[in-house]
Amino acid sequence: MTRPTPPDTSARARPARRRPRNPARALRLREGTLDSYHDLAPFHYIANPPGPVELVLVAEDRTGARRDDRLAGVLTLSRPVLNGPWRAVAWPDLAGPDHARDLNASLRTISRLIVEPRWRGMGVGTALVRAALRWCTGRGIGRVEALASMGPVSPVFERAGMRRVTFPCARREARLRATLARLDLMPWDLIDARRVWRDRATGETVERAVRRWANDSRATRAGASDPLGAVCVRAARALCGRAGAYVWEGRARDAG
Fold first, then answer.
1. How far is residue 219 from each of residues 79, 83, 110, 144, 215, measured CA to CA in Å?
2. Kind of pairing between the strands at 53-61 and 71-78
3. Are residues 43 and 158 in the same domain?
4. Confidence class of residue 81 from pLDDT cuts 50, 70 and 90?
5. What does residue 64 show for φ and ψ, rounded to 5 degrees?
6. Same structural domain, 153 and 177
7. Does residue 219 share a domain with residue 114?
8. The dihedral of CA 72, 113, 244, 49: what is its sign?
9. I want to staple 248 with a disulfide (CB 3.0 to 4.6 A). Which of 6, 31, 107, 162 is the partner?
10. What does the pLDDT read at residue 18?
């Protein structure tokens, strides 16, 4: 007799939540800690943690019977990275690495937005983004940005009042795309070893190109010498799932 498989009791196998009649009234927004982010991090498509976090906002279910069943969503707000190609379109006065002081004074980045699967489609993400915008406004920060690969299919940032910015791809991405085009390869072909190594010259050219791509950014440099298959998968994900930029500019209040 076959032994039955034990039930999955992980976070991903939680029972279906009953949809509240008025989700907005069921939610409570508050400032939280990184523990809340770590609780929902497995549900995000980016495995790496966000940069230095300045604020964690949490959405909780007021009606949750158990404490560990109340977390509906989490948002983290971080200080901006120095280089962002979308800023040349959104805010030319902040473009380039020479504006570090202005960036830190006037801009924050929504570095993670995660909604617990049972709460998706109920306005949790929109509520968290709006709360983050209010938080920034009240502290004299008049600009907010976010990057999201899922933006086109889940326009949560636009619903909250942010606008999408179209910007040219980074130089390293454009270089890799040009190399693949010369070899008659598409970005998703990078995950197919038979396509990449259809002949030795093609394989060696692809290897040089993807390792250079990885080495040209601090975000991927540590893995530039990893096995070629792993580097190719990262490059394919970056090229196929290019994040969209969303920006917001409001009237900042005097924090003093």
1. 16, 12, 17, 21, 9
2. antiparallel
3. yes
4. confident
5. -60, 125
6. no
7. no
8. negative
9. 162
10. 56
Cβ-contact 136, 142 below 8 angstroms: yes
CA distance 206 to 104: 38
User: In the predicted model, is pLDDT for residue 165 greater than 80?
Assistant: yes
Query: 33 and 75 in one domain?
Result: yes
What tokens does 209 get? 């190109």
Range of the domain at 94: 26-167+243-249
Q: Measured between alpha carbons, how far is 136 from 116 in angstroms, rounded to an integer?
A: 24
* Amino acid 111: pLDDT: 94
- Residue 152 sits in the same domain as residue 208: no
How far is 225 from 214, CA to CA, in rounded Å?
A: 9
Looking at 32-41, 122-131, 136-145, 149-158, which range is the least confident one?
A: 149-158
Q: Are residues 73 and 179 in the same domain?
A: no
- pLDDT of 43: 92
How far, in whole angstroms, is CA 193 from its chain's centroid? 28
pLDDT at 238: 85
In a domain, residue 109? The reply is: yes
* pLDDT tens for each residue of 6-27: 444 444 445 455 555 566 677 8
Q: What is the CATH number of the domain that holds 158?
A: 3.40.630.30
Q: Do 139 and 235 share a domain, yes or no?
A: no
Nearest to 57 by CA among 115, 144, 97: 115
* 235, HSE (Cβ side, Cα atoms, 13 Å): 36
Query: Are 151 and 194 within one domain?
Result: no
More confident residue, 48 or 239: 239
Partners of residue 53 on adjacent β-strands: 78
Alpha carbon distances (Å) from 95 to 102, 114, 147: 10, 28, 16
